[in-house]
């Protein structure tokens, strides 16, 4: 029994749970302190704190409705990611308890971390950082935080896809070993 808590499945349980909690807290913060990150999205999309080069500032989005829609899409994506990772964490706990195999937990974690990669890698690093030139802003540059989240999700994806020994699902005829 103790071996279950020192192996890769335990690591994946912990990393999935921490990532799920992080996303849940991000959503909570975005809902309860809506204005702070709304201002962030507004400034990034407006490109109003970048170098001001007209060759790129034509990309700016300043329409309040579009900015609000973009921010709401981010919050909904974060909430969906949190839900998927909570399900994944629960699945990993079932694996540790010996009630399930890792197949389902791996799929849920993989989906959740892929969603995180798409948000932080695709949304913040690629679109925010490059298309909207967020890297030029001293005040509204979220690239470091995006990279941190992208890397956590990337490490999770690597770990969850490491080959491991096949695990038999516990059942009435499964061999029970003392813990």
Automatic annotation (TrEMBL):
Keywords: Membrane, Transmembrane, Transmembrane helix
InterPro entries found in the cross-reference section: DUF2165_transmembrane
Pfam families: DUF2165 (PF09933)
Transmembrane parts of this sequence: 7-28, 68-96, 108-128, 140-160
Keyword check for Glycosyltransferase: no
Protein known as: Putative small integral membrane protein
């Amino acid at each position: 029994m103790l071996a279950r808590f020192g192996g890769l499945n335990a690591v994946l349980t912990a990393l999935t749970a921490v990532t799920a909690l992080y996303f849940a807290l991000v959503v909570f913060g975005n809902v309860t302190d809506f204005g702070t990150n709304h201002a962030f999205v507004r400034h990034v999309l407006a490109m109003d704190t970048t170098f001001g080069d007209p060759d790129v500032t034509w990309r700016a989005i300043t329409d309040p409705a579009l900015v609000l829609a973009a921010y709401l899409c981010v919050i909904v994506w974060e909430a969906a990611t949190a839900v998927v990772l909570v399900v994944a964490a629960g699945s990993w706990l079932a694996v540790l308890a010996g009630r399930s195999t890792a197949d389902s937990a791996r799929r849920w974690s993989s989906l959740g971390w892929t969603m995180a990669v798409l948000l932080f890698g695709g949304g913040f690093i690629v679109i925010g950082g490059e298309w909207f030139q967020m890297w030029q802003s001293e005040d509204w540059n979220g690239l470091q935080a995006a990279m941190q989240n992208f890397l956590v999700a990337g490490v999770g994806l690597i770990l969850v896809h490491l080959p491991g020994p096949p695990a038999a699902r516990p059942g009435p005829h499964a061999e029970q070993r003392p813990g």
